[in-house]
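sry for the spam today, last one i promise. struct tokens for design, 179 residues
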């Protein structure tokens, strides 16, 4: 299994563009920080900026000394309901088996994103929000079913066409809250 962190690419830049429009807040978590590119975007918007990755991104700390970087699987190391915003550009490429943890999204491309979302739902405040990037190549029916079963309100907030796919960033709110 590949153990390299994800490098900042077109999809990460797209997420960064959306993150740059966020209103300031108290706390921000990025799950799967990769090389830390988006941590720079939010570092002056939040009192606390944290990033996690299963591969400790040495270069992320060098790029952004103003954020806390933690080697952790998703948000497993945090208490419940502590972040105002949780964001992630998860591995989303549909694959039968996960061989490259930086890009392989598993079955339908949503297996890994849903695992990230499950973790995010435990640490986002009830009034907080989650930002998630997915591809038009992903199994949206499975994603929508998960959200419906877990009472998660989903709103599409941005789209960008790249090569053979359309990337979409969703805003999700726990407990079907539309606020």
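last one done:
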């Amino acid at each position: 299994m590949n153990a390299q962190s994800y490098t900042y690419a077109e999809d990460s830049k797209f997420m960064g563009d959306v993150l740059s429009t966020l209103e300031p807040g108290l706390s921000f978590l990025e799950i799967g920080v990769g090389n830390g590119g988006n941590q720079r975007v939010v570092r002056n918007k939040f009192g606390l900026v944290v990033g996690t990755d299963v591969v400790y991104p040495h270069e992320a700390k060098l790029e952004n000394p103003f954020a806390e970087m933690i080697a952790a699987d998703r948000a497993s190391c945090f208490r419940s309901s502590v972040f105002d915003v949780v964001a992630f550009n998860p591995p989303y490429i549909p694959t039968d088996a996960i061989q490259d943890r930086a890009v392989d999204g598993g079955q339908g491309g949503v297996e890994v994103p849903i695992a990230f979302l499950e973790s995010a739902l435990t640490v986002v405040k009830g009034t907080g929000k989650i930002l998630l990037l997915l591809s038009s190549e992903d199994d949206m029916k499975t994603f929508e079913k998960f959200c419906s079963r877990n009472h998660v309100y989903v709103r599409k907030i941005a789209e960008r066409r790249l090569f053979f796919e359309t990337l979409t960033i969703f805003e999700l709110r726990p407990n079907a809250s539309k606020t």
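The radius of gyration is 15 Å. ok im logging off now
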